[in-house]
Design brief:
heterodimer, A: about 300 residues, mainly alpha, MetI-like fold, 14 helices, about 80% helix, about 0% strand, flat, B: about 325 residues, alpha/beta, Rossmann fold, 2 domains, eight-stranded mixed beta sheet, four-stranded antiparallel beta sheet, 12 helices, binds adenosine-5'-diphosphate, binds magnesium ion
Chain lengths: ~300, ~325
Amino acid sequence: MLRFLLLRSGRALLTVALVVTFAFVVLRLSGDPALLIMSVDAPPEAIAAFRRAWGLDDPIWQQYLRYFGAIAQGELGQSMRDGRPAIELVAERIPATLALTLPALLIKLGLGIPAGIYAALHRDSAVDRLVMVAAVAGFTVPSFVLGLVLVLVFSVQLGWLPSGGQDGWLHAVLPTMTLGIGGAAVLARFTRSAMLEVLGQPYMRTASAKGLPWRRAVLSHALPNAAIPTVTIVGFMVGSLIAGAVVVESVFSWPGVGRLLVVAVSNRDLAVVQCILLLVAVTMVTANFVVDLMYGLLDPRLRSGAKGGH
Amino acid sequence: MHRNQEAPLVEIRGLTVDFDGVRALHGIDLAIARGEAVGIVGESGCGKSVTWLAALGLLPARARVSGSVRLQGRELLGVPPAVLDEVRGRRIAMIFQDPASALNPVIRLGRQVGEALALHRGLGGAAIRAEARRLFELVGIPDASRRLDAYPHELSGGQNQRVMIAMALAGNPDLLVADEPTTALDATIQAQILDLLTLVRRETGMALVLISHDLGVIAETSDRVCVMYAGRMVEAGPAEAVFDEPLHPYAQGLLAALPPLDGPRRRLDPIPGTVPPPGNLPPGCSFAPRCPRRVPACDHVVPALSEKVPGWAAACIRAHGPAMADRRAVGA
Ligand SMILES: Nc1ncnc2c1ncn2[C@@H]1O[C@H](COP(=O)(O)OP(=O)(O)O)[C@@H](O)[C@H]1O
Ligand SMILES: [Mg+2]
């Protein structure tokens, strides 16, 4: 188990390092930050001063090493726009984003998983068909469309809820619903197929053959097996707590990390973009790591497989 | 053929099963006496498993089952699940072909066996573990107390089948239905599992239904043999008699395909062709297209299973009792 842990944490760190490198390369390839930040007709001396101040004249590998070293020490640089530490700018936005994505995650789990289980247990019933239609719709309709539909219905037609901005919890309802409904649909579909797969397994027949009542067979034999594939998608959802709201934040002009990212990208505010990418990468990687651990807990085959360096 | 006249333990009458409107089982009649060992043989797809899955209510919901299955006179078909749960495992236990997938991969073996002990013997806590260990030892699992904490993937197929048998014994059943219990195992392990089943039957006095596509496996373990083909019973009689001189050409074909136990090795004679799928049965006798003794009449009637000799029945218009008599009749 120790080896399993070390292996997985090593992999997680490596992934973060790769993301950091990737962010550096892509952002540097995409243009000269000095020219993008300063207006093109800025005096050459000003541009030169800017380049010196940000170390943009040093050889690229030096910039890379410095950048990497700084990040390793938690130094994420300053916003090239307003000179504040990038990490501060980003950190300010995190609560707003989580205020949408955490409740949305609860909706996904609380609605998606039970709906998927119920649909699988009552295959081909009216409820199953309803869940499947909803799931396909939630799966295919992009979140900005769903968001706009919700705005049309609940803000424009009914006038019950505000359509944008951040002014008390009422404003969070529609964006949270938009995120939650789409995700619940995906999760319901996933849970349903995981359950159906498990319900068809020979060990379920064994459970019935030994006299276990169906309800107990489902609870103690089916759910633990169906949880294994479901953990993957739940982990992915947890991993996108930060980054998963870019579109929805834009639709509802919600001042979260996603909106900050959109603004920072269009401004070429390198430090902020990098900081967000890093944050997203770290959340994703952490979630992945936790998923790996969950696999180990849920599936004894992996636990012993890990000894062999799975 | 019941050795005594008491009512059978299990009596199946006119059992039919349809999947999506296609009949897979065409009215099976079969009675199992207390303590009796009955073998059910036939190629893959003949309806052996479906018969017993239907009897125990273990088929998927879309299967339509009709007929009657009685356990000591009490009807089992169409009863509420709660009634079946009292029968399954406690009165009639069933084990399956592939023990590795028949056991739950994420639950410790001791707990899987313990569940049956809690259900059927009302045991709890430490008593469960002690009894599970005793069962593991009974079925010959080495290092039993450590194996209780193992998962299925940590044991071999043969060991897992022993666990399945231990689990089946947990409810002290009156009948154990073993559906191809050795098919997934290699030859030496096969023999060990068959020996174990014989031993267990001797010790507990329970009846045994052994399902196999291998007549050889059946012959050694059973008092009585039923041969199934394409969803019907085509021959039923005392194991020795059927094994010596099968009446039905299909049973003869199965026998001819067996490697001889002794004597010179000869080329095996598999029956040509394959079992027709349920939706595509020929008119008349289902076996006719593959039958070496086919006559034109075979394409017109579905032969009923009828007694040719007391206690020995076959479903073939050309079978008239043991082959000697038959040959005389043909020669005349
Ligand atoms: N769940 C099922 N759905 C549809 N057809 C089935 C199902 N189970 C069995 N059958 C069909 O019923 C017939 C008998 O199957 P089975 O009893 O499993 O054969 P076997 O004699 O090999 O045990 C086969 O033709 C098989 O295709
Ligand atoms: Mg079978």
